[in-house]
Amino acid sequence: MRPRRTGPSARMRNELESPRTRPVEFRHRYSTNDLSYLTDAERRRFLASGDPDPQTNPAIAWELLYRIEPELYDRLIRPERIHPAVIDWLPHRVHQIVEVGAGTGRLTAALIDRCDELIAIEPAAPLRERLAARLAAAGPRLQVRNGFFDDLPVPDRSAGLVVACSALTPDPAHGGEVGLQEMERACARGGRVVIIWPNHAEWLVERGYIYQSFPGRMTLEFDSPEEAIELAQIFYPDALQEIRRRGNRLVPYEVVGANPPRDLAWKPVAE
């Protein structure tokens, strides 16, 4: 979702430095040799069951992307601007927010001024480092912690808002039932659990969540047409021809076959 190679991301460094070099499509980008980038604990978690080959198991490929090429992940998500109405819908002020699967801080940056304390939980160390550096000016109001959906490092009933953006799915590897229960455990009475840009919204609705979507056509906002093409070569190969034909830095989500980040599912925690 890389041909076999030796050395840490050597080919990718060359690709980023030389746009003329054709980037390697994501599903071929990594090999089992790259599993060495995972910690022992991560290997036990990710490889305990299932296919360990990132060329046939997209979930492993994504975990390697976060740890080997966090700068590429940042470039991928930068064009994905969350609908402003989604951000405006969130509580304007709570004492504490817990964000799960915070990544490099795409949503965190919009949350930091809405609370006295923000705990951003992210399991991939390179993403945590980028998040902490990006929001260093927040000072002690921001705590960046290591943790997974199924074991959140926060007390019961501690946060007025517990939120995840494009991270939780029904798959246990990405939260699942246990992850949802953990988010609800961490939410204070009278607070909200919110899943922004949900995968499988119907799964959340079946569990008592309220689904909401905001209108308006949205586009991926790349820095340039050239960057749109370069990232499409890696992540959207089926859309590459159409993106080239358009020659525009703004790419409608339907071109890449994705739902825009304009929806959420939420659940109030009873007082």
Tell me the number of strands. 9
Biggest sheet strand order reads 3-2-1-4-5-9-6
Strand content: 15-25%
CATH superfamily of the largest domain: Vaccinia Virus protein VP39
Q: Estimate the global geometry from the Cα principal axes.
A: globular
CATH topology of the largest domain: Rossmann fold
CATH C-level class of the largest domain: Alpha Beta
Global mean pLDDT:
92
Gyration radius, in Å:
19 Å
Q: What is the level-2 CATH architecture name of the largest domain?
A: 3-Layer(aba) Sandwich
Q: How many domains make up the 3D coordinates? A: 2
Percent helix, as a range, is 25-40%
| Poorly predicted parts | 1-21
Secondary-structure element string: HHHHHEHEHEEHEHEEHHEHE
Query: How far is it from the N-terminal to the C-terminal residue, by CA?
Result: 44 Å
User: Which structural class best describes the helix and strand composition?
Assistant: alpha/beta
